[in-house]
C-alpha cells in the first residue's frame, strides 16, 4: 500500500489513474484474446476432425 501511495504522490493522481486505466484495459484485452485463442484452437480441431472423417 505504501508503494501505491508513493507512486501516486510522485506522479500525481491523474497520471496514476491513467496508468490504472491502461493496465485494466490491457488486462481485459488479454482476457479477450485468450478466449478467442481458445475458441480458434477448438474450431481448428473440429475442422481437422471433420476432414479426417471425410477421407
Feature tags:
55 residues, mainly alpha, single chain
How would you characterize the overall build of this protein?
With 55 residues, the chain is mainly alpha-helical. Helix 1 packs across helix 2. The longest helix is centred in the middle third of the chain and has 42 residues. It is rod-shaped, with a radius of gyration of 21 Å. The model has no long low-confidence stretch (mean pLDDT 91).
β-strand amount? under 5%
Report the mean per-residue pLDDT as an integer.
91
- Tell me the major beta sheet: none
| Percent helix | over 70%
Count of strand segments: 0
The SS-based structural class is mainly alpha
Order of secondary-structure elements = HH
**Count of runs of 4 or more consecutive helical residues:** 2
In short:
This protein has 55 residues and is mainly alpha-helical. It has helices at 2-11, 13-54.
Task: Please render the helix and strand layout as text.
Layout: H1 2-11, H2 13-54
Helix pairs in contact: 1-2
